[in-house]
Specification:
Tetracycline Repressor, domain 2; Arc Repressor Mutant, subunit A; mainly alpha; 0% strand; 203 residues
Length: 203
Amino acid sequence: MPSARPRTRIQTKNRETILDAALEVFSQHGFRGATLDMIAAEAGLSKPNLLYYFPSKEAIHVTLLSQLMNTWLDPLRALDPDGDPVAEILAYARRKLEMSRDFPRESRLFANEIVQGAPRMQAALAGDLKNLVDEKAKVIRAWAAEGRIADIDPHHLIFSIWSLTQHYADFDVQVRAVLGTGRDPIAEADLFLDRLFRRLLAP
């Protein structure tokens, strides 16, 4: 069977334009609130043109979620079993915080999917995500057993890092309303979380 023809430069550009527009629409309105017409308008393309690249709203959404999952797992993959435990965990928290700063739309897309019961991500959550978290949990548990960090539940440590970092993307408007102008939420959070986790992890 012959391989598929490579995409032209224009086709590649149009796909990227559609995906970026869809990310904007989905992150604001969620999957249910978004429509193909809204995505086409955001992309500056006609609806028939959009449908040439993606057959449905769900196809666009699944493509975005698949790309996002890889990005989302990278910071945890980087946690090095041979590194200093406290430094590795703090670096992971910092990477997650930087993702909230650099990828707020992606974070909201992920949050919206989870809130809806993750109908298009169940396999990824139960597969790649769970397997990676379990793998790193064993590393953290081994560090604790060696007395290098406090004896804490590694899964709930990872959950706490998620909640304490992704909050700054998912609830950005609330955070900035409370802090007011002239403050940098991510920089302040970085200092706070460093102090918090150093105390938590101290053996």
